[in-house]
Design goal:
The chain is of the alpha+beta class. It has helices at 70-83, 127-137, 153-165, 225-228, and strands spanning 9-16, 28-38, 41-42, 53-54, 57-66, 88-91, 101-104, 175-177, 190-193, 198-199, 206-207, 212-216, 221-224, 231-232, 237-238. It has 2 domains: 9-178, Enolase-like, domain 1 (2-Layer Sandwich), CATH 3.30.390.130; 180-240, Wheat Germ Agglutinin (Isolectin 2), domain 1, CATH 3.30.60. A 4-stranded antiparallel beta sheet has the order 5-2-1-8, with helices on one face. Strands 9-12-13 form a 3-stranded antiparallel beta sheet. Strands 3-4 form a two-stranded antiparallel sheet. The two termini are 28 Å apart. The chain binds zinc ion (2 copies). Residues 200, 202-203, 205, 223-224, 226-227 line the site of one zinc ion (ZN).
Length: 240
């Protein structure tokens, strides 16, 4: 599986019951907003200038919720690409010329609702097809989209049905986040939604259902977002 060198950050999903330009009922019943945030930090060995600081990035990307499920699948593939650290890279910004900046990789987002292609907005009839082939090119396929949910087959099936038919999406609030932190045995930590409640193995804080935990299944190690260093840079708050 191909993974990239994007610095750690999180992506959060929301659903809005308003059509994007170019999509209307009955073929669409709203749109998804994916808020992506990569915090500023220090470049690691796999980055262009290790040891130097880089500037983070925060953006909102918009995807139509089409009743055939095509928009939802693309949105989920983008979340999966984020989990694989493929959405961004560190380098010189093409727009500002600023160096050591988190910039887009090969996947193009709609960062505006209006204005069409010149403003990176809608309407843009070919967008879903284009981003779908961009996702193909980095190896995030249609079949991969349910993987990060860590669900049973049965739960996945239910969710798939909801994605294609429901007026709104059961995935709202879903967070995919990455962290540089490792477990005591140096395994990578993956973000998961807390289902039953647990306490952070580092600071002891209680994490209720719906909170994000960063864990290693093998070592039964879980820490909170704050201990994982994953914060909402805009609000200065823990991601939950
Ligand atoms: Zn903690
Ligand atoms: Zn471990």
């Amino acid at each position: 599986m191909r993974t990239g060198d994007a610095p750690a950050g999180y992506a959060r999903l929301d659903f809005i019951e308003e059509h994007l330009p170019g999509y209307s009922s009955p073929s669409s019943n709203g749109h998804f907003v994916v808020e992506v945030c990569v915090q500023s930090g220090v470049q690691r060995a796999n980055h262009p200038t290790p040891g130097h600081r880089y500037h983070g990035k925060m953006l909102k990307a918009y995807f139509p919720h089409t009743t055939d499920g095509a928009g939802a699948r693309v949105m989920l593939r983008v979340l999966e690409a984020h989990r694989r650290r493929l959405l961004f890279t560190i380098g010189q910004s093409a727009t500002s010329g600023r160096d050591n900046t988190v910039k887009f990789g090969s996947i193009h987002f709609k960062t505006a609702i209006h204005g069409g292609p010149p403003k990176h907005g809608y309407p843009d009839p070919g967008y879903l097809e284009r981003i779908s082939s961009e996702l193909d090119d980095v190896g995030v396929m249609d079949n991969d989209v349910m993987g990060f949910l860590n669900e049973s087959d049965e739960e996945q099936k239910v969710r798939e049905v909801k994605l294609t038919t429901a007026a709104s999406c059961a995935l709202v609030g879903l967070v995919t986040a990455t962290t540089e932190r490792l477990c005591p045995a140096s395994h990578a930590l993956t973000a998961q939604c807390v289902v039953w409640g647990l306490s952070c193995d580092e600071c002891g804080k209680q994490l209720g259902p719906g909170k994000t935990r960063f864990g290693c299944v093998e070592c039964d190690f879980d820490i909170c977002a704050q201990c994982a260093g994953v914060l909402n840079v805009r609000l200065g708050e823990e991601v939950d």
